[in-house]
Amino acid sequence: MNERQTASAQGAGESMTEAHSRIADAATSAGAHASTADTTGRLAGETVTLLTRAGFARHFVPRAWEGTEGTFTELLAAVAAVGEGCASAAWCAALWATHAKYAAHLPAEGQRELWGRSPDVRIAAGLRPSGSAAPLPDGWLLSGTWECVSGITDADWLLLAAPVAGGPPLPAPGIRLFAVPAASVRIHQSWCSTGMRGTGSHTALVEMPVVVPEHRTCALTDVMAGLPGPGRAHCHTAPAYLGAGVLMCAPALGAARRALREWTVWAARTRSRTRPDGDRAGLHLVLAQVADDIEAAELLLRDAALRADSGTRAERDVVRNRRVAAAAAQLLVTAVERLFREAGVSACGSPGPLERAWRDVHVLAAHQALRRETAAFQYAASVFADLAPADAGADGADALTQVISQTPLHAEVKETAGVH
Fold first, then answer.
1. Residues 83-91: what's their mean pLDDT?
2. What is the model's pLDDT at position 404?
3. Contact 108/151 with Cβ under 8 angstroms?
4. Cα Rg of the chain (Å, integer)
């Protein structure tokens, strides 16, 4: 096992109380080191270890490899809990879990290479197709550059998407996902963001072409669609966009909760010392409005997570979950914005949890998977397709599927996020 991998996470016989305790330990560590992660651009080693022990990396690993094969609902709650300590740590935890779901689509021998010795393997991913992959008799020759690979510094393996040409061994051009050991990749320190700084979403470089055997690759379209297959549970066959937005919004939910807690302490002190009675109503209103927004976002995300756990693969449910996740993200942006504006210089005068949460939630909401414009377009296309003439129904469904499949899941909105 790679030396960066940690000791065993929660076992099959671990009680719910023990599991919650491990998550709480990880959240506590994340919070204790959040300021340092924000400054240094990477998570503390202790936090990485505790996140792994808490079971995030193994959450969607198949049971055949002693993984959890967990639910989206459980993961939503765990990621949000870590997000109360540090949104960057929660983001990495969510992605390490999600990428195991994708890796479950590799052939059995490829899965064995990843998880044969332990299911607690941290996997980073560059899912925006880049680089090139040339076919070999028994595999592929991969090289290229992949930007915005979150958690890459602490990853054991990477999943990298690259276009491949048509012809033998493939009948047509396409995009494949390649599993590559982290030791084969050079990290270019490129992440310089307004928020979510601790994710270390740097650039992965494969400068010297590496040979990837056939058993460590699969079609990206199969992964995104959640193609059913031998040994794949419901969590693996859920289409990628059915749960992605929910899990990507979970760190923002945690960060907003923390922001409200910090603001409430400040407001209680301000209310009792400096505010006249007539001015206190403004504080009361902000407190109530923000609590409403955060609780509404949580209810939306829980509903979407339950839908992802239901086994549905319907496109209407996929676009509905995208719409719901984007709406929740907007509610959380509104919430932290209210807190930030009301606190004024007390929030932005110096770095702190409230100021950091404000930055992190805004950057998270700028992610392509949480953009309301994209989600609204896809949802509307789905609704209007149902109203199209019967003879155009198939074309409408095909167009919707094409729109969804062409949207890069982990694409960063660089202009908004402040990436240089």
1. 98
2. 52
3. no
4. 22
Angular region, 228: left φ>0, alpha ψ -120 to 50, beta rest: beta
* pLDDT beyond 90 at 167: no
Residue 348 CA, chain-centre distance (Å), reads 27
CA pair distance 327, 112, nearest whole angstrom: 39
Residue 390 has pLDDT above 70, yes or no: no
Q: Is residue 220 a contact partner of residue 409, using CB atoms and an 8 Å limit? A: no
pLDDT of 168 higher than 60: no
Backbone angles phi, psi at 18, to 5 degrees: -65, -40
Q: Rounded mean pLDDT of the chain?
A: 89
Residue 15's pLDDT is: 78
Facing residues of 139 across strands? 136, 213
Contact 200, 152 (CB under 8 A): yes
Q: Note whether 170 and 164 are within 8 A (CB).
A: yes
Of 378, 353, 101, 326, the C-alpha closest to 229 is: 101
Are residues 268 and 283 in contact, defined by beta-carbon separation less than 8 angstroms?
A: no
Q: Grade residue 2 by pLDDT with cuts at 50, 70 and 90.
A: very low
Structure tokens at 229: 């297959």
φ/ψ (deg, to 5) at 71: -105, 160
Residues near 299 by beta carbon (within 8 Å), at least 6 away in sequence: none
Q: What is the 3-state secondary structure (H, E, C) of 44-108?
A: CHHHHHHHHHCCCCCCCCCHHHCCCCCCHHHHHHHHHHHHCCCHHHHHHHHHHHHHHHHHCCCCH
Share of the chain above pLDDT 90, in %: 78
Q: What is the mean pLDDT of residues 353-366?
A: 96
